[in-house]
Amino acid sequence: MEGNALHDNWNGLPILRLRNLTVQRNHMAGNCTGLIVIGDENKPPAGALTR
Question: How far apart are CA 6 and CA 30, in angstroms?
């Protein structure tokens, strides 16, 4: 996930149960939350995330 402009949203970038993801060089402003990562007990579990 790279090079996005995420402005004036409720959640800028929600990440749910993802694996092997890199988030870099994004611009987030005016959101209630900029970046939220949710990993729960479901399959597959979240993991291997870098920023």
Answer: 8
- Extended beta strands in 1-51, E state: 5-7, 11-16, 19-22, 27-29, 33-38, 47-50
Contacts by residues 29-34 (CB-CB < 8 Å, ≥ 24 positions apart): 31/6, 31/7, 34/6
What number is the average pLDDT over the span 8-13? 85
Q: Tell me what pLDDT residue 23 has.
A: 84
Return the pLDDT at 45: 65
Provide the 8-state DSSP code for 46: P
